[in-house]
Amino acid sequence: MTHGSRRDFLWQSAHGFGALALASMLHTDPATAADEIGVGTGGVMKKLHRPAKAKRIVQLFMAGAASHLDLWDYKPALEKHHGEPSNFGEHVEAFQNGLGPWMKSPFKFQPYGQSGKMLSDVVAPLGEVADDMAFIHNVVGKTGVHSQATFLQATGFQNPGFPGMGSWISYGLGSMNDNLPTFVVLPDHRGYPSNGPKNWGSAFLPASAQGTTIFPQREIPIEDLLPRADFVTSDSDRDALALLGQFNRQFEQQRLGDSRLDARIKTYELAAKMQMSAPEALDLSKEPAHISKMYGLEKSGSSYPTEINVPEEAEYFGRKCLIARRLLERGVRFVQIWSGNDNSFPRRNWDSHEDVERDHGPLAMGMAVGAAALIKDLKQRGLLEDTIILWTTEFGRMPSTQGSKGRDHNPYVFSNWLCGGGIKPGVTYGPSDHWGYKPLNRDNPTQVYDIHATMLHLMGIDHTKLTFRSNGVDRRLTDVHGHVIEDILA
């Protein structure tokens, strides 16, 4: 069947999208659609560049810049010299006015697991899985500006106009599931992070590679998936789609080679299938009580105080982590979970200029409850071995004080951690200096390109070979940089 005739057949289906979805589901079981690690359907790669250790990714992104010093990069020097004038031994360019005295963490640290990893009390739930994680403490950024730094971590470039990491994975490897998106984004329920959907857009890649945004806490988690107006009937919906199909065929015949319409048609086809599959994937009512409790959902629907608090943060982040697990086991390849919205005040993000203890405490504990549950849940289901979890943020925070309780931006060093699919468990790589200000070895820091190259490597992709020509340049996720971090590979 030719490309055009296949589209005609789809759009002329007598029973509309629902029939398409049903027919597809009858012939494709999402649970068995991709038993082998490799390429899926619709990707440009016909075979992997190398044997893969992982076939799916979860990215946990802390919007606003989480403090490495107050979560997992323990610095005894700050405890010893707390309150003393900060002397960095060099000129320091602060973002605002964060060069006050040295400031120890307001949270206590203690060792966890056989690895003895030092974690603060506000991420204590992750202590149970510390031996599954690999910490990288010498990650460096390029800027202390939230929007540019977020772009860099999300897309590999500081400027807008480049695809998100999930879009590159979707473009290269394609889908493992015909009934759900390849790349799903779960933003903070209070709003988007800096840059909004540009962080997960497809840019110059085919539009079908972009992330699909889902807000699990909202009455309508996926906008426009189902008709809501009272005057819309199944017959009128079918007729409208048939007319739309007629217009699309005319448009396509006049603009051969334009991928945007094909991407839009694929989006509508996927939307039809999602009308049946998405509500089931997002329905947590059949999850056992012990699983809901593990994810912090035992008090779902409670009323919360105005002030930021742990139970609220645990419920909202834990819900997204549980939904991520349900999406992953149904064949979604890349899930991005965000904590924190842009420029909120009172703080509902990680940008703790005023009071680290007030803001980081609830956010960190809520994140840790959900992230620990996700690791344990994937592990007990046999999914962690081929799923990578990446925790990141746009930059770190300074070891000196801003005001009396806050920390300014620190793009000069911060932390990431990974676990799962091919990652060596229970290790710490690339220390920061004794203040947590810059990498201990300034000549060999870890850059986001190295993180991205390593993750693509584990997915079976050579980061130098997955490219797309845009404006005469062969673009790739890692720009012209990137090295696989061999020391954290299992």
Residue-averaged pLDDT = 89
End-to-end Cα distance, whole Å, is 45 Å
CATH topology of the largest domain: Alkaline Phosphatase, subunit A
| Number of helices, counting only DSSP H or I runs of 4 residues or more | 11
| Number of DSSP strand runs | 14
Strand fraction:
5-15%
Task: Decide which structural class fits the backbone.
Answer: alpha/beta
Order of helices and strands: HHEHEEEHHEEHHHHEHEEEEEHEE
The CATH architecture classification of the largest domain is 3-Layer(aba) Sandwich
* Tertiary shape: globular
Largest β sheet strand count, sense and barrel closure: 8 strands, mixed
Name the helicity range: 25-40%
Determine Rg (CA atoms, Å).
23 Å
Q: Runs with pLDDT <50, length 5+?
A: 1-35
CATH class of the largest domain: Alpha Beta
Structurally, how many domains make up the residues?
A: 2
The order of strands across the largest sheet is 6-5-7-1-8-11-4-12
Overview of the structural elements:
- This protein has eleven helices and 14 strands.
- The protein is α/β, with parallel strands linked by helices and 490 residues long.
- It has an eight-stranded mixed β-sheet. A two-stranded antiparallel sheet has the order 2-3. Strands 9-10 form a two-stranded antiparallel ribbon.
- Helix 1 packs antiparallel against helix 6 and helix 9 runs parallel beside helix 10.
Short description:
The chain has 2 domains: 1-30 and 232-274, no CATH class; 37-223 and 284-488, 3-Layer(aba) Sandwich (Alkaline Phosphatase, subunit A), CATH 3.40.720. It contains 11 helices and 14 strands.
